[in-house]
User: Fold these one by one.
Assistant:
Number 1:
Amino acid sequence: MTVGAPASLLDLVSTGALGFLLGWKGVFLLLDPNAALADTQGFLLSGKGSFFGGLAVGAFLTWLSWREKEKQKLETPRVEEVRIMPSEHAGNITLIAALWGLIGAKIFHWLENPDEFMDMIQNPSGAGFFSGLTMYGGLICAGAMVIRYFVRHGMPALEGADAAAPGVMLAYAVGRIGCQVSGDGDWGIVNLKPAPSWMPDWLWSYTYPNNVNGVGIDILEGTCFPGYCRVLPEPVFPTPLYETIACLLLFGVLWALRKRLRPAGSIFFLFLLLNGIERFLIEKIRVNEKLIGNITQAEVIAAMLILAGVAGLMGSAETQLPMDLKKLTEQVEAICIDVAAFIREEAPKFTEAGVSTKSANNLVTHVDHTAEDRIVEALEKLVPEAGFIAEEGSGDRAERLNWVIDPLDGTTNFVHGVPCYCISIALVDGTEPLLGVVLEVTRNGALHRVARRRRLPQWRAYPGFCQEGACREPARHRVPL
């Protein structure tokens, strides 16, 4: 990325446009809240707004953006390589999921109810767009676009899906609370049977007074909200409440297993399976539009999710690694010892003329490059299907198995003749470490290695350390991962 450049015209225009939109609607809302809140959805998609409020907020945000860039401006802008962690993408991922979730939910609702789509075309309104949403449409479209974002930005898609799965299940449970309290039509079929003695009546059947759909008969007694004073004539199963309870329990299952199931993708596929089963069963007592005969769109999608979940879990089981990790660790140790001998040979001959910089305070030498090339060449023979995440960029990254390599960990010490540097190599399956070897070059044989166990509480390593220019040699450790 370019550091120290002034604000571009595109940056200023986009910031000003966003500020104008916020001021246009926001200032009008502050000045006339009653008119705006009477039909919030219609107001947001209408032409109503404060023009001068939009100009004021847009100009202010544009000035702030210009001022911030001016503070960081350099006489000569420079290009730097900046590592962006996946967590720093959270804002973009949230916006993409929200936007495409809304679009997908609406598209799938219109597929279920084409008459509502035609009515929307003939009589466009904010209420017509925001009311009537299908959860699975939002899940499918948002999920697809978020995974696309992962792939485009070099983030592992399966690991990202695993990270999101418990949260999506929890979000679904919370969302169904809104369906229950608003009475938006996601209720069940008529239930006139008496409730079991151990179950409260409201959990067994419910009439949804003041439901937002205005369905039912007039409320003659009790609380009545203007415009929504209707109640179902017969009680129905409160299916949104059942889904909330079920998905909270399933969230607990996914959360408890999130660090136990391997390989990458297992949690996501389990989410598809569990959510598909939950939704398929709830459809049996839920009111919904029929797609084919007595089958609803939700049942078809739920069945597809179940099949995808089962296939994914079976595929994950088939791809468990059969390799002998103990033997592989010993082979990696041998490679480290061989490369360490090369580094020790080069150390007395090395001069600062052979040093270059990757970035500020980040040195690299021909020894780093040669050592890495030797390591990559040797490791390719051990596990041909594995890719590489190497300090100096050798090799290509694979989707699943990757060697993580630092051929000379402590280059600054090496350059200045401080005898504290090491070779670090690890093998990871997605985000799961399988083994690791650290060899302190100046104390050949001070190896630290780890190998996968059934449980992975923590990875701990005990490298050597320097004090007053002298390196202490650590004892040899074999540490459970």
Number 2:
Amino acid sequence: MLCTTKRGTTFIPVPSPLELDQQVCFALYRASRTITAAYRPHLDRLGITYPQYLVLLALWESDARGVQDLCDSLDLDTGTLSPCSNGSRPPDTSNDAGSGPTNVVSSSTSPKREMHSGQKPRTSPAA
């Protein structure tokens, strides 16, 4: 860009709008990764991922939510949410031979108590 003043004409470099640092989407992506990285040491101690943490927070607000409701609330697809909910569901609530719905997730099947106390959650319910 050329800028004309009383002292003359000066060339002022203007960054291209296509440069990575000029992209708002990249700034948001970088901020998201930074925030997630800040949570990682705490979540690693609990043995859960950030998406699992978000699911637990959503369940604490409103227990026994449908999978689609959680997906909509958290802006996750069912492929991301399924490992979160299936990993915390007791074995007897699977949909084998029509034994019950598998599209509802409840905090009673999640490591809520352990998360709140700072203990590592169990990966399966006690027998």
